[in-house]
Automatic annotation (TrEMBL):
<feature type="binding site">
    <location>
        <position position="118"/>
    </location>
    <ligand>
        <name>Zn(2+)</name>
    </ligand>
</feature>
<comment type="similarity">
    <text>Belongs to the endoribonuclease YbeY family.</text>
</comment>
<dbReference type="GO" id="GO:0006364">
    <property type="term" value="P:rRNA processing"/>
</dbReference>
<keyword id="KW-0255">Endonuclease</keyword>
<dbReference type="GO" id="GO:0008270">
    <property type="term" value="F:zinc ion binding"/>
</dbReference>
<protein>
    <recommendedName>
        <fullName>Endoribonuclease YbeY</fullName>
        <ecNumber>3.1.-.-</ecNumber>
    </recommendedName>
</protein>
<keyword id="KW-0698">rRNA processing</keyword>
<keyword id="KW-0540">Nuclease</keyword>
<feature type="binding site">
    <location>
        <position position="112"/>
    </location>
    <ligand>
        <name>Zn(2+)</name>
    </ligand>
</feature>
<dbReference type="GO" id="GO:0005737">
    <property type="term" value="C:cytoplasm"/>
</dbReference>
<dbReference type="GO" id="GO:0004222">
    <property type="term" value="F:metalloendopeptidase activity"/>
</dbReference>
<dbReference type="Pfam" id="PF02130">
    <property type="entry name" value="YbeY"/>
</dbReference>
<keyword id="KW-0690">Ribosome biogenesis</keyword>
<keyword id="KW-0479">Metal-binding</keyword>
<dbReference type="InterPro" id="IPR002036">
    <property type="entry name" value="YbeY"/>
</dbReference>
<dbReference type="InterPro" id="IPR023091">
    <property type="entry name" value="MetalPrtase_cat_dom_sf_prd"/>
</dbReference>
<dbReference type="GO" id="GO:0004521">
    <property type="term" value="F:RNA endonuclease activity"/>
</dbReference>
Amino acid sequence: MAVRFSNLDVKLVLEDKTRLKKFIAELFKRESQGLQDLQYVFCTDAYLLEINQQFLDHDTYTDIITFELSPNPDITEGEIYISVERVQENATAFEESFNRELHRVIFHGALHLCGYRDKSDTEEKLMRQKEDEYLSLYFA
């Protein structure tokens, strides 16, 4: 099992990476989802927009894009791209700290890989509940 973090054209210092990696692994365990390999890539708005256009045929900015790469639905191998600029903008808009909003997005991507969706109002409500649950556990 490996959880990795990398920066692409952005400066971001994650506090206590070891603890965060262990917590993400625990999230997968709590959700009964196997975890083989997970790469988080922190990037710019422009880079994430390019991914959104190329792979999802969307011409909009977003804070996160999640790719499941495993052929086995029970074992996660994935990549999660996060726009640091978009997270900062959302933190300001939601009157939240950057650190807490960043962790919300980190957990959001992991939850997508565990099978949670957010397309309908009901799905979005459940996703927010799960994000809040993991934020409370992490920042307790």
